[in-house]
## 1
Amino acid sequence: MKFIKILGILVVSLQLSQTSYASLINQNIVLNKGDLIAVDSVQIPYYAFNADTVFNQTNERLKMVIGDSLVLSVMNNTAGVQQFILANFSINRTIAAGATEQITINAQKAGIHIYSAGKAGTQIDLWGASGMLVITNQSDAGKSTFYWNLKDLESDKVRQLDSGKTVDWTNYYPDYFMVNGLGKDQLVGDVASNVKGAVGESILIMLTNTGKVNHSIHFHGYHCLAQEVSSKRVQKGSSKDTFPLEAGDGLILLLVPDKPGVYPVHDHNLIAVTGGGKYPNGIFMVLDIK
Amino acid sequence: MKRITVAILAVFLVSSSYSQADTTFNIWMWTTGLHQLHDGLTLKNYGFTIGVARPSIPGPTLRVKQGQKVRLDVRNQSQGAPHTIHLHGLDVNQANDGVPATSFVIPHKETKPYEFVATHAGTYLYHCHVASVLHVQLGMYGSIIVEPKDREAAPGYVYGRDFNLLMSEADKSWFDNIPRHSTGDSVHAKFSLPKYDPDYFFVNGQSQQQIDTLMARSDENVFIRLSNVGYFENLVEFPAGLTATLITSDGRPLPNKISIDSLYLTPGERYGVMLSPLGSALRTIKINYLHMFTGKQVHSEEVSFGIDETLPVNGVAQQNSIRTYPNPVQDVLTVEFSGTNATRILLVDAKGATIESDFQLNDEQLKVNVKALKPGNYVLQVYQKGKLVLSRSVVKM
């Protein structure tokens, strides 16, 4: 009996200690329209969710820890009516031009989710406006964390959409492949995607596919553990060097390097390492381990 | 004197380094291949060989034992571009990673070593990492198999025989029209590519009637190693009536061993699937090739099993197969038996009439002169103790 009481106190204490970490987060994101500057300097009409009304081709990342509440204000800074969809939380809001919608999200379980300005397979999310919502465990606090939001885009189709034409997606053949809205040479200065760490360190990589096609991300030098999966093709807890991501998939990967070195990570559909028809211009990141 | 001392020291260092490896492969890299296709055409391919030989697609399968120290002495005899070997999935150190910008390249007429320890049993790839999208497409790839101790592919999963199926595709226009790199090209240069629209779909570099039949006993577990080094996806369908259990991926046991009837492979992935004993029925594995961007199925190939009860029970892990080449054939068809025991072979025409049966079975190879046959489709039938164990299409040109 005494043991059960002690156990009960321990459980309550644990719950209190967990809730004591929880935060109320207020964040604003703005749906902007602008021009993507591709890796070969070509300009392409593009949408993105940014921190303010200044267009940036990298979508904002929403970050939470289990127990957090996020009050998210989503402003539509475009000329048309748009949607905000967070399918895994059954959120689908219509936002008038210039209007702002407020959404509350409670983080109950670790995982990675995609938010977007349209349903998968329709126009605008394929046009750039989709990003990631990451929920981590409290035990992940302090770990170095990196973000890879994969995208693909067929510039001719995007221009057709932008000019109000109907697009036939059945022959989709993207010519730009990006991480966080950036191609290979643009990624060099992107601190969110270029992994820097040390031997023995626990490193988290947040990976989503907000493009239309499947991707296959291959790590040189290391296997990673699939810590959280939002995917039919990857088993939670599996250790792999090549991770398939269908459109809409997300993975939280744990990398614990066992040796130093500089290693690439790239799409092993090598066509997706191109950009503007040239190789190598696409999905290609670097791990720099000391 | 000083020079001689240095030379002796260099020889000592090289030989001591050699002696540290448990197994060494002498790999050659070429740009002079002529890979025969199922329709009689050829691809002017790049490729790897062991020793001096004409490269085909894929390169030789390198089998090593778990725990071995492995060395590849790699000679570039390509007449052109520098090349490398990336040891895909083996988690080697940076120096042995085969990436031009971070490791080293092997210029024409030079030989350099790669070394690794085969720590984890599993199926891996090797491929050139210079202008990868081009050199891989042109054929510079192959499999590395790290055999587990006691044929235990994952804890509790022991196989009698294992087979390696490496999938890829070829867009012939790339082989014909893309300017090839010359010796002086920068390995870092950007280059333009046409749209990728493959017209050949390979299993171990073969398609349609070329594909090897996999010979196994009816009563043993069969371990299928699946890899995709193409740019399309594969959807592999396993034979109905058998239990297919997915047990490994990328050289590691999976946490959940699950029964499957089909399996997707994206480029660069590898999986290990244990099949329950085949029984007496003839079985096939179907491999569908899905477009990398639309997901549409554009092609499929079939890999057949043949039953051979004379194979040793739980023999040394190996790939038993019957190969027929060239196929299509004009003059002489070679039938090659690897570890299987045929007792009678017939060549029959499309109507089932026997064309020739008086073959002399010597060792593991048979030469069939088909020069006088009319062009058309024929069937090679292999019997074992009176039982048909294999039928193979042969195209006479």
## 2
Amino acid sequence: MRVAKITIQFLAILLVTLLPLSAFAGGSHSEDKEFNATDLINSHIGDSHEFHIADWNGHPISFYLPVILYTDNGLTVFSSSKFHHDNEGKEIVEVNGERFVRYKEVIYYADKFAAITDEADKSGLNFDARPLNFSITKLVFSMLMSAIVLLLLFTAVARSYNKNKMAPKGLAGFLEPLVLFVRDDIAIPNIGQKNYAKYMPYLLTIFFFIWINNLIGLIPFFPFSANLTGNIYFTFVLAFITFLITTFSANKYYWGHIFAPPVPKALYPIMWPVEIIGMFTKPFALMIRLFANITAGHIIILSLISLIYIFKTAWISPVSGAFVLFMSVLEMLVAALQAYVFTLLSALFIGQAVEEHDHH
Amino acid sequence: MVLAGIGAGLAVIGAGIGIGKIGGSAMDAMARQPEAAGKIQTAMIIAAALIEGVALFAVVVALIAQ
């Protein structure tokens, strides 16, 4: 028992002293370039076609992900190493009869890009100048990895229930209270005893998926450091699925509340826009809440680490390390909390859609 | 740029006051009835997360506006 305690204390101290190593997650910059905190933070929070692991002697070490494009010539696949770390639209890659450039992590057709004169048109939304991009980027890679982890985890747990008829031990013993928590404290109080079972798979999926992705974003080294839940497109899809489930499982009481609320009929022209906008703002709030919480946490941690580079001295690193430790622990709480709040509010909206009234 | 920062700061004032009030009343309630502390804590965390969501709306708008 004493050996275990000493081991745990040693590991804890070792991990705490290694925490400032997450500063290397920033990738170093060569000495002649001015340190730009904004670029560092944006490159961490945003998506990218390669995993930038570290810099060695000025050479960046990256894990190159495949670029999958659908062009007029069909499906084109190549490694992102062909761009040679160019992000300014200068390196032209010629594959499969088409030529591409990459500008600020967006891939364009080379000739159409060269024809763009207006700087504002060089954004990701310029769909004429871009091929259809199905690449496995950093965030897609992280999402697939967390999906596979979840699959393996839960199928293993499910199979162990067949073999072990008594109280669950091990991994099943760890996950069962969480699953029961989602059922007893999130699903049943909000959706009701009658129809909660249909929605349990969805609620369990988003709870664990969001939680695991939040935690993966907090681990600073390869292959974990992708900030998936801090990407607004990802949270948009999750909120959209909640919206679809609420709309398609809504019964006539729900639509009755929206189109015939219990107010004098003269107020209906005011109530209809309000209620319909209300139908959309609830998933919109879900999307923004998760995105902003996770992104804000990452920005704070990265800024505190950048303090070391801004002050240009190693003496600030214990202070910075202590702040980063505090913020990281807080972010772990936020990771679980945001998963819980997203699931709770989804259950609440589904419950509002399926609830039965007797008193109307 | 500066105005975006001021906007974000104002939003944080609102969030701080709101969550402070929630925490305060939660503490009062827990002191009055210690058996209900678990439920009060859960409700407090949910309310705090919702208020923080609103404050982060404002931060996102400030980020977009600058």
